[in-house]
Amino acid sequence: MQRNSLILEDRPINHSLSLTDSHSLPEEDKSVLQIWGGNPLHGHVKISGAKNSALAIMAGAILCPDDCRLRNVPSLVDVARMSQILAALGLKIERNGDTLDIDARHLQQSQAPYELVSQLRASFFVIGPVLARLGAARVPLPGGCAIGARPVDLHVRGLQAMGAEVHIDHGMVHAYVPGRNPKLKGAKIYLDYPSVGATETLMMAATLAEGETTLENAAQEPEVVDLANFCRAMGARIRGAGTNTIVISGVPNLHSVDYPIIPDRIEAGTFLVAGAITHSEITISPVVPDHLTAVIAKLQDIGAKVIAEEPNCLRLVPGRLRATDIETLPYPGFPTDMQAPFMALLTKSEGDSVITETVFENRLGHVAELNRMGADIRVKGKHALIRGVSMLSGAPVVATDLRASAALVIAALAADGKTTIQRLHHLDRGYYDLEGKLRQLGAKIERVQDKTDAGVEADQTLTAPSQILTPPQMQS
Ligand code: EPZ
């Protein structure tokens, strides 16, 4: 699925943003993770709020001409970036712990600097709410990323169907609603692909439109439902979120709200996989088990047990790992964001597994690094054939994207000896204090200053280093 990407001027951010430490973006992180494998995990780990919900809901706060309070917001680089982008649009943002107060009273149609937007694709989702509130918006084209070209044609076509004039000029998407009353109009929109982002952008745009909008072949992800629930709590009229047909009846205005973000199902899945590959019994909460149906089914398929202890708590009971085949699909299918972590698990399962990545065209970047650790994976187009091995060995490896970095951490937990993982800025985008949470479960894992230029030729014989650093954004 793919077609285009582009570039842009930037302009000074007019900071109406009161950022505490945890919001400021860290310098290029020169630290590396060192993991000594073979240690069983035990105990309980707390799951943070969902990154992909928080980002969409932060964009959704633009719809409200008042302030909103979001709770359970994870402290992540991506959340800090979205805060800066909202500030560039004139919003006031205040963070206290995992609570975020967003005041969108003074929204102005300005543009966020390219360097911020290019690093956070989700920032493109603001085009829907800005257009809905102001009748005009200019947002940079986000461009592609490591996992694919990631076009936004479905977003643009949907906005055009709602009466917006949209054109792309010098890498900037200019959208406006012609006429004296620049309000979007309800429309019937069929999405060629159940895109999460396009569903979210158009659902937000339709909340303030005149008339009714129907989104067909819509995405059904839990994050889409969480955004719909947030908008409904502000007074929006939305039916069918979580199904492939969403109907939105536009309303004149929305009001302020206090809203808790759902737990992160991908972080939860990552810990379940870490438990399975280290043959460890662990519990995780809060989680919504229904959000993990496909992942739990595959874990049970390969021999682990996943038990729902309390309504929002899961226990992973390890088992002998067998092979299985996986095809990534839109929800409720197997999530593409769990593909890399699960591939790491299957490298240690008995037999041959085939993983087929159907959602993104370039999301097998972790294969070469897993093979560096002794895995046996061959790639043919969008298929990866994983032949289970009895042992992985620690090695210097490089993270290529967010979920690939989680896969390397998981493989390292089960590997013999020490692994060094470089380029942690990928990991910090989507996991809050992963190494702290794993250390709490008994893993031998440290984030240390990268002493070598290449960073990865770290001396294999090194014992646990003396100087230990915590990542900048954890210091909030
Ligand atoms: C969201 O990305 C998530 N990001 C991704 O999580 C996740 O992998 C993805 O959904 C799929 O589940 C956020 O929510 C911030 P899509 P999004 O639009 O919305 C094509 C992570 O690791 N497409 O559903 O960008 C597109 O190229 C991240 O946390 C078009 O062709 O995903 C892709 O192949 C990575 N035209 C497919 O659809 C469009 O206009 C799915 O993309 C839009 C998308």
Q: What is the average of the pLDDT values?
A: 90
- Helix fraction, binned, reads 25-40%
Which cofactor or ligand species appear? ligand EPZ
Number of discrete helical segments: 14
CATH architecture identity of the largest domain: Alpha-beta prism
The CATH homology group name of the largest domain = Enolpyruvate transferase domain
The largest sheet is: 4 strands, mixed
Pathway: Cell wall biogenesis; peptidoglycan biosynthesis
Enzyme class: transferase
Modified residues (2-(S-cysteinyl)pyruvic acid O-phosphothioketal): 145
Family: Belongs to the EPSP synthase family. MurA subfamily.
Care to describe what's here?
The structure is a single chain. The chain has 14 helices and 23 strands. With 476 residues, it is α+β, with helices and mostly antiparallel strands. It has two domains: 4-19 and 51-260, UDP-n-acetylglucosamine1-carboxyvinyl-transferase, Chain (Alpha-beta prism); 34-45 and 263-474, UDP-n-acetylglucosamine1-carboxyvinyl-transferase, Chain. The chain has a four-stranded mixed sheet with strand order 21-22-1-23. Strands 2-14-16-15 form a four-stranded mixed sheet. It has a four-stranded mixed sheet with strand order 4-5-3-13, with helices on one face. A hairpin with a 5-residue loop joins strand 11 (237-239) and strand 12 (245-249). Helix 5 runs parallel beside helix 6, helix 6 packs parallel to helix 7 (222-233) and helix 10 (339-346) packs parallel to helix 12 (402-414). The longest helix is centred in the middle third of the chain and has 13 residues, at 265-277. Mean pLDDT is 90; it is low at 1-25 and 454-476. The structure holds ligand EPZ. The site of ligand EPZ has 28 residues, from helix 1, helix 5, helix 6 and helix 12.
